[in-house]
Request: fold
Amino acid sequence: MRLILLIVVVLPLVVERVTADRILSRRTRRELASPLHVGGIRDPHGSYCQRRGGCCPGRDDLCTVPYLDTICYCDLFCNRTVSDCCPDFWGHCLGVPPPLIDACERNGNRFFTGQTYKENCNLCTCGPSGRWDCEQNPCLVEPTIIHAVNRGNYGWKAANYSQFYGMTLAEGIRYRLGTQRPSSTIMNMNEIRVRTVLNDHLPRYFNSTEKWPGKIHEPLDQGNCAASWAFSTAAVASDRISIQSMGHMTPQLSPQNLISCDTRNQDGCAGGRVDGAWWFLRRRGVVTEDCYPYTPPHQTPAEVARCMMQSRSVGRGKRQATQHCPNTHNYRNDIYQSTPPYRLSSNEKEIMKEIMDNGPVQAIMEVHEDFFVYRSGIYKHTDVSFAKPPQYRKHGTHSVRIIGWGEDRDFNGTPRKFWIAANSWGKNWGENGYFRIARGDNECEIEAFVIGVWGRITMEDMHNHHHHRRRHI
Ligand SMILES: *[C@@H]1O[C@H](CO)[C@@H](O)[C@H](O)[C@H]1NC(C)=O
Ligand SMILES: *[C@@H]1O[C@H](CO)[C@@H](O)[C@H](O)[C@H]1NC(C)=O
Ligand SMILES: *[C@@H]1O[C@H](CO)[C@@H](O)[C@H](O)[C@H]1NC(C)=O
Reply:
């Protein structure tokens, strides 16, 4: 009897003690726990306090709800500097928007840790301390460079191009150019000497498009494919064949044919050499753009497209296609070939003479960071990026087609000589796809390696093509 009484008296005491211990330890745990919302509120729209059925006044360590891999609280005490409130505590219990807990802000919107946005060419990530952490790549379109060029008296104007916006400078150099410097043996190749030009009359202005209307091809767009080696070669060969055949044939030769089929020591959309391209045009030949259309790479810019056109010899060095055009609308798969190319001297007058007599030439040039934003005027590489860190100054080798020249005066009346050249960045770039660049100073090394070529055209060809054309009309 006495024993039972004792138990009855002691038991509640023990139970009370245990509860107090548990609460104390839980409190300590709660207070020591790492804050719940480091790096932003996860599952910010989840329903927790609401699902629990309400909120608790003051401090109530039992007022919890499971939250992801832990628990969250719905008591007023949770709303401290170190918060362990459920995501919907503020909205559901206080009726106020949740505070910014280590979240990043941008244009009035809230982003959580790990979320990203792209600022021009740089990815910005919301960091754990609530601050944006942005990559620091130089971009292909740098607004500060555009402004500096347009404010200065550089003789040319710059513009933002949507097709370049968002790319890094390194990507521009990697995907928009694509001509490897000729090997030293080629570089040392003897220049052919065009007749002494001292006595020849060279006009102050010359434009192939005006001298040979309908025979000079419009600039194409290589897209994100570093194959200027194929584009400039095909363009010069197209113009030369058209001029030489006196308009009997005006093929726009296919850069894709070169990119996909001239693969020996060439890297397609990852760059190539013009000497290799000319070798291919001479020995294998290519079809027209209409027959073998250009398909710029979508996913990985360096992807290789299978060669869809072969040719075989039909004697006397001439070739014939052995496959149909890789398209459904055009059946004319004539193969066009060239003679061996010849290198001109770096003398400005000799280059001019060659263009005037025989048509556009191919030139290799160094492209610097400011060239991408060229809009109009006479380009010269500027010093506008010299105030920036060295990674903002980059250059790569490109090839273009020079079609003429001219001269104008700058703002103080000093004459400025220029070349008229065609690029392969589409017609919305520069002056309708063309650009003018300083002449006579080897600007960007444009006069250092210039190539001319002849199409391989016989009277028979001219006759055949003439007939074909007539039949089509
Ligand atoms: C809860 O936190 C919000 C935001 O920090 C603050 O404005 C509010 O006064 C706090 N409420 C309570 C009851 O502590
Ligand atoms: C440049 O063009 C892009 C895309 O067209 C645009 O989003 C960006 O704001 C422009 N930047 C400047 C500096 O004009
Ligand atoms: C070259 O001639 C074409 C055709 O007349 C013309 O559209 C173009 O503006 C000329 N280029 C220059 C730089 O004068």
In short: The longest strand covers residues 395-409. Residues 50-99 form one domain. Residues 76, 79, 99 surround 2-acetamido-2-deoxy-beta-D-glucopyranose (ligand 1) (CB under 6 Å). The CA atoms of residues 126 and 132 lie 5 Å apart.
